[in-house]
Automatic annotation (TrEMBL):
Protein name in the entry: Facilitated trehalose transporter Tret1
Domain Major facilitator superfamily (MFS) profile span(s) in chain numbering: 1-218
Record has Transmembrane as a keyword: yes
Taxonomic path: Eukaryota, Metazoa, Ecdysozoa, Arthropoda, Hexapoda
GO MF annotations, alphabetized: transmembrane transporter activity
Pfam families, per database record: Sugar_tr
Stretches that traverse the bilayer: 6-28, 35-54, 60-80, 92-112, 118-138
Superkingdom to which the source organism belongs: Eukaryota
Protein's gene: Tret1
GO cellular component: membrane
Amino acid sequence: MEPYEIALYGSLSCVGALIGTPLSGYLLDRIGRKYSSLLGGLPFLISWSIIANFNQVEAVLFSQFLAGIGGASFVISPVFSSEICQDSIRGTVTAGSMIFYGLGILFSYVMIACLPYYTLIHILVTMTALYMLCVVFLKDSPVYLLTVGKEEEAAKSIAFYRSVDPDTKEVLDELSNMKRLINFENAGTTEEEKLKPEIVHSGSKEKISPIKYLCKTE
């Protein structure tokens, strides 16, 4: 490779990321978390397949550009995982995606040192294909499904990730909480109204602040 081609090889992934990262936000709202995850894996699958089958410099550079677009997955995955898990483990699961990202890089360096070049490429193609295959069997995020008005599908999604029936109290309670949060966000409540709620007396209809209310009830 020429010096300018080497420079392109190192920078085209960043150029692709400039396209993939903002595109991920649009896809998350437009087609949902599940299908965004599938599309996020597709550039990696094509990229590794190109490297496995072509030796031309242009093909390798294009594969790097595609890999940069696939970087959208690093935005999509935390959103998807945070919306399908319980509150008690949400922080751990979300942080875990970044931890395993680092472990994956470490694992790839170990494989580079231990395996022949094309064997490594074929393993990475297989792993990407397996990732996409696993995503196919997942259900979309219940938060997204509620946002687009698919309440029944949202209940099934919660039940799927909790391994319970859709009509159990656990699912109904969580669905109700999600609906309340989504409605609250859509209401466009200002920060001042959130920080300064008012309490209305049932008899006189007089509005008082929470501090005054607490003083009167002591």
